[in-house]
Specification:
By secondary structure, this protein is α+β, with helices and mostly antiparallel strands. 44% of the residues lie in helices and 22% in strands. The chain contains eleven helices and twelve strands. The strands form three sheets. It has a five-stranded antiparallel β-sheet with strand order 2-1-5-4-3. It has a five-stranded mixed β-sheet with strand order 7-9-10-12-11. Strand 3 and strand 4 form a beta hairpin. The protein binds adenosine-5'-diphosphate. Adenosine-5'-diphosphate binds next to helix 10 and helix 11. The site of adenosine-5'-diphosphate (ADP) has 21 residues, from helix 10 and helix 11.
Length: 375
């Protein structure tokens, strides 16, 4: 006959009269364990229950749950639930994990996660509840939700702003552009040399501004008015390669592809994504080395992971994240043309498909852009 441990619960447990081991386990449990009889009277209460509710077992023993840890608004429901189970044997809250509000001794309410187990012993029954204080988890969840909501709102505002700004900026720029054209037509050759040069600079700047504004406008439009369709990525790639044919021929690019999937997606946006990645691989090629691009896709649990690998100039690790921010570039216009919005487009498109995009690269040897598409 094992000896019961010399703790202050010694001998107080009618229900777990089984073994000292059972008692040790209950006392050491990380969850609060509370047992009640069929009238809702507390018959067992482990040290963890003392800790989270602030009552000692000696204080609550013989009291009803409704007088102690169940907040006022839920007391009737508890009594009715208990009655219902005793009459019908049905207990919708039994053997499930529930989240409810509990009451501490100091009157504070807090969220708990619990499961309730009916335990039948000979011809009687009692109920055992396993409870866990989930205040921290709930606070973190609420904060996360608030944060996500605020971020979503900010993004919407930013997109709205980008749309309005780029839309409205087009008008004065068009006026500037047509007057610069007029100036050039009527005064080119009649100005002195610096004058002609200034006109060229103004024209270049206006053209660049037009590209930037159009890019911004396109960026803010991604995700508006779209519908999911079945997209055959092999066909989509064929179209993209046809569109990029001139650049591919000029640079003698070699593009190899594995069999690509058919998936649920936004076709126009996916086309833009493929196009951006391939044209970047051609643009950021190594001098004197024909670009080689390998495109593949592997299925994962949540969808597809695509890889676009090239043998271009590569990217240093410290820029891996920056390149996906709108208008962030690692080169000047003179080295490589572009406005730095392409990868920002890609990121937005991938996120629209519930995925991520990232790059792995060895500077001087090549880069692989990966993205996932959720299915
Ligand atoms: P852009 O092509 O207009 O510069 P992107 O947003 O497409 O803008 O790309 C941002 C930057 O990321 C580029 O300026 C370049 O430095 C780098 N980059 C993108 N793709 C590649 C690539 N395949 N190889 C090397 N660098 C790349």
């Amino acid at each position: 006959m094992p000896q019961l441990p010399e703790d202050r619960y010694h001998g107080q447990y009618e229900w777990f009269e089984g073994t000292a081991t059972t008692r040790l386990i209950i006392n050491a449990a990380l969850d609060a364990i509370i047992c009640i009889d069929t009238t809702g009277i507390i018959t067992d209460w482990n040290p963890q229950a003392e800790k989270i509710f602030g009552w000692t077992f000696a204080e609550v023993k013989g009291l009803s749950l409704t007088e102690t840890i169940i907040p006022e608004p839920y007391r009737n429901r508890h009594r009715q639930g208990l009655q219902h189970y005793l009459q019908t044997g049905e207990g919708p809250v039994l053997n499930r994990i529930l989240e409810i509000t509990a009451l501490r001794r100091d009157g504070k309410e807090f969220p708990v996660e619990l499961s309730i187990l009916p335990i039948h012993q000979q011809d009687s029954v009692f109920f055992c509840a396993f409870l866990r204080d989930i205040t921290e988890r709930k606070t973190a969840e609420t904060q996360q939700q608030l944060h996500a909501k605020a971020l979503e709102q900010k993004n919407r505002e930013l997109e709205q702003f980008a749309y309005i700004a780029s839309h409205d900026l087009q008008e004065p720029l068009r006026t500037t552009s047509s007057f610069v054209d007029l100036l050039r037509q009527q005064y080119e050759g009649r100005l002195d040399e610096p004058g002609d040069k200034y006109l060229v600079y103004i024209t270049q700047a206006v053209n660049r501004m037009q590209v930037l504004i159009n890019d911004l406008l396109r960026y803010s439009r991604i995700g508006r008015k779209i519908t999911l369709v079945m997209v055959d990525c092999n066909l989509l790639l064929k179209e993209v390669l046809a569109d990029l044919n001139t650049a591919i021929q000029e640079e003698q690019a070699i593009i190899t592809t594995a069999n690509l999937p058919e998936l649920n997606g936004y076709d126009t946006e996916l086309k833009m994504l493929f196009q951006n990645l391939i044209s970047n691989s051609i643009k950021f090629r190594k001098k004197e080395v024909p670009p080689q691009i390998k495109i593949s896709a592997t299925q994962s649990e949540k969808g597809w992971t695509f890889a676009f690998a090239d043998n271009g100039i590569g990217i240093e690790e410290r820029y891996y994240e920056r390149i996906f921010i709108p208008f962030q570039r690692l080169h000047t216009w003179h080295e490589y043309e572009g406005s730095g919005i392409g990868l920002a487009h890609c990121k937005k498109i991938v996120e629209l498909h519930g995925g991520n995009i990232w790059v792995e690269s060895v500077a001087g040897e090549g880069s692989t852009f990966y993205f996932t598409i959720q299915q």
